[in-house]
Design brief:
Elements lengths: L14 E4 L5 E6 L2 E6 L18 E2 L5 E2 L1 H8 L6 H36 L6 H8 L2 H18 L11 H7 L6 H18 L3 H13 L7 H24 L8 H37 L15 E11 L4 E10 L2 E7 L7 E8 L3 E6 L2 E3 L4 E3 L2 E6 L5 E5 L3 H24 L5 H13 L11 H9 L27 H8 L5
Antiparallel strand pairs: 1-2, 2-3, 4-5, 6-7, 6-14, 7-8, 8-9, 10-13, 11-12, 13-14
Amino acid sequence: MDDQELGFKAGDVIEVMDATNKEWWWGRILDSEGWFPASFVRLRVNQDEPMEDYPMKVEDGKEEDASTTARRYGVGQTSKDQMRTNVINEIISTEKDYIKHLKDICEGYIKQCRKRADMFTEEQLKTIFGNIEDIYKCQKKFVKALEKKFNKDHPHLSEVGSCFLEYQTEFQIYSEYCNNHPNACTELSRLAKVNKYVYFFEACRLLQKMIDISLDGFLLTPVQKICKYPLQLAELLKYTNPQHRDFKDVEAALNAMKNVARLINERKRRLENIDKIAQWQSSIEDWEGEDVLVRSSELIYSGELTKISQPQAKSQQRMFFLFDHQLVCCKKDLLRRDILYYKSRINMDDMEVVDVEDGKDKDFNISVKNAFKLLCGDPEEVHLFCAKKPEQKQRWLKAFENERKQVQLDHETGFSITEVQKKQAMLNASKQHHTGKPKAITRPYYDFLMRQKHPTLPTNLPQQQVFMLAEPKRKPSNFWQNISRLTPFRK
């Protein structure tokens, strides 16, 4: 490290001495001074508490009031209003900087890339830049809304909370961008190995007069921006008096932006899970019908149940996997218990879950324990299931309840998986299985399905839980050991 560079670590508070250079600032930590990169730190607008909270002592021992202290130190506004002014100014200024940043990417990079059809396809540009042009359009409207609410004469009276509430739904477009960002990094890493792309991207940066940061660094900014809104709003709420006209809107905006961030994280997790679900399906023997991902994207619960079928009330031990919209039934292999065979599925959108009391069931004319039914609008379609223990039955009933809530939540938030994402997940899964080898369900995916827990959702929604249902313990078998001793040939 250069002698004039200031060393610091996460959590350090740096006093900024000179910020005339946009990229490098001069700062001080305790007795050390030096240059440090401005992009590596976050500006604290509340570096000092209001001076009115700290009365000064004068020579005769009497306390000095806040206004006298302010005059002594040349400070104008010293109340919470001044701190609120600082936060408002930071929000407005960072939004303007962000707009310029997005403009530079769209005009400096995307526009130039489209001129070079010999180097980039539209699909490549979609992978690299995602929907950043849509984000740019959204942010331009948002910053105009902020400026309308900004009170130039008295910034602390500005009422910006309503702007965040108005645009909270539009901010969900960041979900698509954040989910695509890893793909963008992968594609850029691939292109970085080819000199002509390296020179081209550097020429774009220089022509647009952008700071010396690589393209993947610029493309990270929207991901950071959507995560910064809750921090800024929390700071704004801290210095907004409850009597302020903006207080309730800022409070609601903070919760709204937290929920947007949670929603983005939840969608990212769901998209990561579709690969695991595709890999699980590809491991199932004798699969029939459409892929799970055609209708589902979330495993809610799984475990063993006894299924009782009409008309002879025949009971069968089966493994069941409850996804959103459907319940998949599989049979375990008699010898290799980690191999599953597809048997059937039930459309949960048409089903009603009914708790069945212990005793004789009138529909099946048999005695049942820890049972429940799935009833369809068609009176002839009745499914009866029995769990081994009462607590297992309750977990299944709770899981069916959570499945309906998940479907409703997806409908309300507009969550969906594109056909391209579904096809890509199934294609990736099929590549992992070698031709001619048995499709035994591999341990990582089996553990994923058996142990997966439902995530925490926004605080204004009921929490959902998925419990692990352990497989019954079995005694170790010496069957294969005995066979191997009798086999004259070995591979």
